[in-house]
Amino acid sequence: ANSGVRDERQLSVASIAFSPTVAGKVYAGVGDKGAGGGLLVSMDAGRSWTVRSTVPQFSGTANGGVVGVPSPHPRSTGNLIAVDDARGLVYAATFDDGLMRSDDDGATWTTLGLAGTHLRSIALDPEDPSVLYAAPYGDGVYRTTDGPGTGSFAKLAGAPGTVEELLALPGPNAGLYAVGPGGVFRSTDRGDSWTALGSGSLPSAGWAAIDGSVACEEVVLYAASASGGAGSV
Fold it and tell me: How far is CA 189 from the centre of its chain?
């Protein structure tokens, strides 16, 4: 599965994203504290890889010693790559160089904003992929309604303060989800307001990851904690 990988730092994988339309096509964001990596692409379901670009850099390793990130701290991994195949766009939430966009399948990149922050997650709005959400560490959630254009971001006033991962699900009963030290949150109005989920049922834990699906208008969510133990998922 490592065929084509030529640098040990390319084995530090921060994010994986499958093409929504091309079978067997996979993107991987790799690197060590924002260096030595880039965007890898596989066309055979991960059996072999090529470096598409070294411009977007990620961190698939522990981030000890990095200014602006607590040490120890979980790796900067998760939903860091978003693919809008309908427009031919790929978005990358880099380690500290901001949110980038490519319109040529990852070969060249434009920085949209948030450079200097440590991005933890991005999510495309499934109802309108022009809307993109980004979560820098310790700085809430930002939104742009013009991802394919200038991509200027505005901070969402009511969002959780520290977000480790974002998830956007389609449908009127779904919405935008965020997890972090404060718990699990949902917004059904594109991030303008948020509701805490799981009161009385979720233990207090350092929630670090979220995933889910929608079937028959029912939303199923999975949240994972970095604290381990019986309550970690």
Answer: 20
pLDDT, tens only, 106-157? 999 999 999 999 999 999 999 999 999 999 999 999 999 999 999 899 999 9
Q: From the DSSP assignment, how many helices (H) and strands (E) are in the chain?
A: 0, 18
Geometric angle at alpha carbon 111, from 110 and 113, rounded to 5° = 150
Q: In what order do the strands lie in the sheet with 175-180?
A: 165-169, 175-180, 183-187, 195-197
Helical (H) or strand (E) element with 225: strand 218-225
Expressed in angstroms, the distance from the first to the final Cα of the chain is: 28
Tokens representing 85 are 């195949």
Structure tokens that stand for 125 in this block: 């709005």
Count CA atoms closer than 13 A to 118's CA, side-chain side: 21
CA 30, CA 13: separation in Å to the nearest integer?
Answer: 4
84: number of Cβ within 10 Å: 18
- Grouping H, G, I as helix, E, B as strand and the rest as coil, residue 10 is helix
Q: Model confidence over 28-41: pLDDT tens digits?
A: 999 999 999 999 99
* Secondary structure (H, E, C), 198-220: CCCCCCCCCEEEEEEEEECCEEE
Backbone angle region of 229, left / alpha / beta, with phi > 0 → left and psi within -120 to 50 → alpha: left
